[in-house]
Amino acid sequence: MSRLPGTERRRRIYLMRHGEVQYFDADGRPIDPRHVTLTERGCEQARAAGALLREVPFDDAVISGMARTAHTASLVLDGRTVPVRDEPRLKEIRAGRLAAVPPERRDEIITRAYERAPEPDASFIGGESWTDFQRRVLEVWLELVQADGWANLLIVAHDAVNRVILSHVVGASLHGLKAFEQEPACINIIDVDIAGGQVERAFIRAANLTPYNLAAQANHHTVMERISAQFKAG
Q1: CA-to-CA dists, residue 176 to 63, 94, 183, 217, 225, angstroms
Q2: What's the whole-model pTM score?
Q3: Domains assigned to the chain
Q4: What average pLDDT does range 9-24 have in this prediction?
């Protein structure tokens, strides 16, 4: 089994979110999230992450298959001969129609979306069920970490996807989603010990690390607060 140097059964996952994209047009109307691409700033963010990870000997890379994760991974790897595989189960949670959200409750429903995840039959802004989403993400997560052939793995996914994984690692299930902010092109570092083909233990070495703004200077709003503000602007 591949392992980190000097360890018996430890491997490392670098779990990233894609770089910045624009989810709304100039008039504040939602853009189909399946087709959004990195902004110029998003490209800069991904390059900064790549510079920080330049010396990491990645054995494998997995993306969600969305254009924004593919572009981020290509900028991070910067021409390195690392295989990059699509895993559609890592696609972002599907929201319902934002226009269907009552205007008087729009800010509350969008900005508090992660806090409602543990509620019975909860969905993401009227879209995909949180329990179904958690199931598909953790299914592929366990497959990836238990598979042999890598010691350092890069995963480029999405905000809610990463929150589900991080919350699972700390044993908080859906209750922990609200605590894990995931900025564009952020890096999370997770170590796992594998014994008998199973995860013996896992722990987080870093979370929401943003190489382009390490001190989070002037970053005073959550991801969902920014999304709500952009939608209201239209």
Answers
A1: 23, 19, 16, 24, 18
A2: 0.96
A3: 10-233 (3.40.50.1240)
A4: 95
